[in-house]
Fold:
Amino acid sequence: MAQSARAVVVGGGIGGLTAAVALHQSGWQVTVLERARSLEPVGAAISLAPNALRALDVIGFGDDIRALAVWQGGGGAARSSEAESGGGLRTPRGRWIARSDAAAAAERFGGPLVLLHRATLIDGLAARLPDGTVRTAAAATLADPGDTGRPARVATADGEWEADLVVAADGIQSAVRRTLFPDHPGTTYSGFTTWRVVIPVPGAEFASHETWGRGRIWGTHPLKDGRVYAYAAAVTPAGGRAPDDERAELVRRFGDWHDPVPAVLAAARPEDVLRHDVHHIAEPLPAFHRGRVALLGDAAHAMPPTLGQGGNQAIEDAVVLAAHARDLPAYSAARLPRTTAIARQSVRVARLNMMSNRAGMAVRDTALAALSRTGPALLLRGFDGIADWRPPQRPYAAGKADSGKR
Structure:
């Protein structure tokens, strides 16, 4: 790789930083331009599935993240007998609809599902970049996407950057995407809003679970650091806000649900609660590149969070892009069909778990309970082709022949 090869990454989130690390380790000179004043992430926790962990193996970070898994195959944090029996899916009154099996999932897909705070992931990625790589308070716009005969140009308040590659990781409202594809309709409202919180909950002992109500869901999950990650979602018009505060709104919507929901709400402060409407890209882009510019993550394929794959797919994008940095059509060909299929599956799952029709809910819950009784394999089948993905190149930074075989 020629020393003059330069990449500019627009956006310092999870996908952008992963791409920056992968490109840096491949010999590129990399600069990350982040509009915020710091890399402190917007959001709470993130779940990383085995597919993303194998992608992180490419940059030597996978095992660090695996070590944060609460379930450790017989070890992990001290928990109640209920927690040890495994988590799953519940009704608002607490009845178990379906039980999950972390060991079976790890066996099927080659590793654990890890929940961690986004800040932990961001900090670990940034630490793998040379000092000065990340420039904060550096809003950037695409001045010229470039072509085979000329570099791309990115404009900032301090001047322009020329680059052999521009990585557009500027999020769901990507300005770079609008510049590259001005006729694309952009994002659409998914029909629901979400709330998230990461807090300590004294004395809380529970099985990791998600609860499906009528047009509402709640999830509560322990983190390795002792805190609790909780999220909620509800079908509601776009742009809504609580008349008082979002904690009070959660109490109104979920306060009478099963334990530990009331305990989590009691431990939360209004300022702990994040609320965001959910949008996704319903019409796939024609490509994930144009000229010398490549889109990744939410800028390319924003999807509902119902499969927990948004951040995972951004990490996949990043390592695949690094492998095809000199051949962007190959990057689009590798990523567009896969992410389009996963985004569509996420929309279908959102329709299922945000269902409001009582008769339909009864049929859904009965079917899930029947599947659960047959064993974990049928419930896990929905993640075949997603969680078992492997990167196109062997992990070169982790020093392993195939870290996916565990």
About this structure: Residues 30 and 95 are 51 Å apart (CA to CA).
